[in-house]
Amino acid sequence: MRFNEGARLDTSDVTDVRGGGGGGFGGGRGLAVGGGGLGVVGIIVVVLFQLLGGGGGGSTGGSPLGGGGFGAIGQGQTADDSDLAQDCQTGADANRSVECAVVAQIDSIQDYWTQAYDGYQRTDTVFFAGSVQTGCGGASSGTGPFYCPADQLVYIDLTFFDELQQRFGAQGGVFVDGYVLAHEYGHHVQDLLGTSTQVDHAESGPTSGSVRLELQADCYAGTWANHAETVPDESGQPLIADITDDDIARALDAAGRIGDDFIQENLGSGRVDEESFTHGSSEQRRRWFTTGYQTGDPNQCDTFATDDLG
Known about the structure:
Helix content: 25-40%
Structural class: alpha/beta
Strand order of the largest sheet: 2-3-7-6
Distance between the termini: 28 Å
Strand content: 5-15%
């Protein structure tokens, strides 16, 4: 994956609280992440439970946010985006720095949805380190990336991308990072459309609403990938110059390693229990990302209208 060298990056969709301290835990309205039901087998599985979660719990009335403000971050945390804004200015910066690549991907994802969905409202990704307070309660790095509908923000500790390779065994790569982020912004779209509120997030199983929500977010991520090379920014030029077949293969590899069955068999008890599925199988996750990528059409991502999830 390469970025156009002269493209301008906009860091206004990122709130960086990594220098502000983690704050305490407690409070909130329940962490809005997918997962659960696999059985606790150690701290690594806490990460796995939450992997690419979000949307679990539905909207609790948090006001839609524009590109700047943030909601319930507190407990001693402060946002300081000055270093990020100085370091991440162009596509050339994104080509040399994973951190700036993440900024560029967030720009591209939100530019895509702004153009694909008339009612889309931009929101921030919060970079945190260690722990963070959110509108959904306290979260730690072990939670993995997630979307909180209570404050309509995406949260990520960027060290997660290392965890994805080191603990999950994924090939990783810059485009895989974009897939992770696009999935979380898919949950934001679901929140704006009201899809999340129609799901019983306590339900699990291979055809549950929780699984359908996650697979739809994978499909939405695929639609962004389809358009990423052509989505124009404010200057009229696309941020992303090239997505290769290898990038897509790496994303499918990652999708296969975050399926409920793979997690249970390889990082859990060793026994696959379909009734505890909350995110979908490896095959399903690969299938729905591919559906979005091949069609480029969010309307083809209606996982709630089919009996065949794969």
